[in-house]
Amino acid sequence: MPRLSKKKKAEIVKNLFNKANSGNRAKWQRVQQRAYEFYLNEQLTVNEKHSLEEAGMPTFVINRITPVIEMMKYFVTANSPRWQAVGSEGSDVEVAAVHSDIADYCWYVSNGKSIYSQVIQDALTKGIGYFLVDVDPDMDRGMGEVVFKRVEPFDVYVDPTSRDFLFRDASYIIIKKDIPKEQVMRLFPEHKAKIKKASGSAEFSNTLSMRDIGSSDVILPDDMVGEAYKPSTAEEDEILDLYETYQKIKIAYRNVFLNVPPTDEELSEIQKEAQEQMVEIQKEAEVALKEKSLQLEQAIEAGEMIEERAALELEKFQKETEEALAQQQEMIESSITEQQSKIENHIITDAEFQKMLDSVEFRNNIVEAVKFYETRVSLCCSIGSDTVLYEYTLPCSEYPIVPFSYTWTGTPFSMSAVTPLVGKQQEINKSHQIMIHNANLSSNLRWLYEEGSVPEDEWEQYSSSPGALLKYRAGFTPPTPVQPLPLNNAFFTISEVGKTDMEYLSGIYSSMQGDTGVQHETYRGLLAADEYGTRRIKAWMETIVEPGLEHLGRVFKQMAQSTYTSQKVFRIVQPSALQEDRQVEINIPIYNDLGDAIGKWKDYSTASFDVRIIAGSTLPVNRWALLEEYFRWFQAGLIDDVAMLAETDVRGKENIMKRKSIYSQLKAQVEELEDVITDREGTIETLSRQVVQAGIRDKVRSAENEMDKDTNLSKAQQKLLRDKMRSDYSTMSKQMDNEMKAAIKEERLRMRDSQKQS
What we know:
Layout: H1 6-20, H2 23-39, H3 46-54, H4 65-77, E1 83-87, H5 93-109, H6 112-126, E2 128-136, E3 145-151, E4 156-158, E5 172-180, H7 181-187, H8 192-197, E6 239-260, H9 264-301, H10 307-340, E7 342-349, H11 350-356, H12 360-364, E8 366-383, E9 387-394, E10 401-405, H13 422-443, E11 446-448, H14 456-462, E12 480-482, H15 490-506, H16 523-533, H17 535-563, E13 568-572, E14 582-586, E15 588-591, E16 597-601, E17 609-613, H18 623-635, H19 641-646, H20 653-693, H21 697-757
Antiparallel strand pairs: 1-17, 2-3, 2-10, 4-5, 5-6, 6-7, 6-8, 8-9, 11-12, 13-14, 15-16
Helix pairs in contact: 4-6, 9-10, 13-15, 20-21
């Protein structure tokens, strides 16, 4: 297959983009853009607003979409996702445990919680949100860090034939951005010359939005047309079409087994060790032969064996010894041969293998070279239709762009949570506008009058003033008020039913949003309603979000294992102030006696493990219900008072827990001292018995006197210390118990008050 030029590759990328940017995608983007505008309170088109103004009707909206979406977003992103790594082998278990910490670290440095919230918001308002797993080579002083990023959904163009909700079957994914030329040069300074030659335009190419910027209260990215300026000169800058094209490719690899001969030093050491082993074996054989000969002579002298039998036995033993020596010789020689022909296994690309075949030494040492293929993702970054900035192969088998759809349609064009709410929102807006307009008409009368019967300026000024006297000319018919028709009650019904319908469509009910008008008989009734009300969201979590997070975790694993190949220490920030920050270390070098690195401990890059998402890890935790459970566990004796206190909001709990820790240490010291005293007393008694049993009567009395003195003195000192420590501990323990009881009582009272208010 002929190698394509960079210009040809750029042309292919542009053609792929044009194919993905079809009429169907344009339709999808317009619909989702409209849904997103409704979320941002932009719910009236220019024509609708103009028509209302001409009719003298209000143009306000009653936005019921945003609170619903915000509540849905909260339920999904209340907590950060937690991944669990499971090692494939025993040696990988420790590294697998470290991986979870590395994921937490990278999530933290990426501001993952905020990114996750934005991605879920995109899914709810634009139909789909995207995570991007990337490597920032400049972080950690040039060592690089794996980071999580968000991609604007309207910038992503997916192979239209994809039918997988994670786009794993897509033949390509393109991220297209409109970026000012000078900014591109700042992003890629190593490609500055190429970027200067690239041609662009003076405006953004994305013109799918039908918004009227002048009438809008919200500014969106597409509204920034023509506002790109060079920071260096403040002149208008060109806009470049930047394409990041991801494609799955098959790469040929070789599983190479090489015969690696030892060095001269290693060979000399092997031979020396073998000679020493043979000398030792021969010495053992000679000693065994002498012992056998001596046994036979003794048997002859005792009359147990005749000389002929003894000679035959000795000859037989000698032959067996020679055969054993020969076997040992063969084993040693075989071991030498094995050590001289050590087999090493290497995985290299087929291209590297072909280059290495030029070496005669390499060819001669090949035992076997098995060819196989693996999927990898290639990335090509290009500008316009003629310039390729760079291209390389990513160390992952799946796209680093992970989608999160709301309502998957079997195509790359998912539907948002806002879309089914738009009609009801318009219905609510219209009913409220009519009701307010009718109220205005009722409060401000209109008049029918005969031309020339009244001074018009005077009537316009004072007709709405309370108690005003309005005159009309004699001979004319007095003006008559135009009474508006009474408003149909259907409009009030439409408003209320519309609100109920919107709750039904979204699965977010008033009680879940803190509506005080919705009452439940008991606190547990409120919890049950909350549990049942979130089932639709949980269904979305189980079918779309959590599989997406698990896929994200696997992509992260591949990127992390290829990035963190050298020794590195990760500082893990704990979520609670009561927990101390931890450090984990990977790829720790192992050295031999000569100081040479011979391997790695916690070798992260080569470990084999799988990654799973902990189900429900991102969902919110009902704090009051959790505290109630902790109280029950504490009362049942399943947890101690420290664990109970850690979960409360008691002020100063950190200091209380520190004092509790000091008390625990003091108690341990008292118990340790008691053990020491008991051991000493036992030692003294043992020594006394030993002195008596030895029969040293003349020294017993003096020894006993000395021991009595020491024992009495030691016991007296120990008793004083023991009594003091027990007294201090008892006092401090009582103080601690009182503080804990008061804290728990305070927390329970606060919970009861809160439940009553709920």
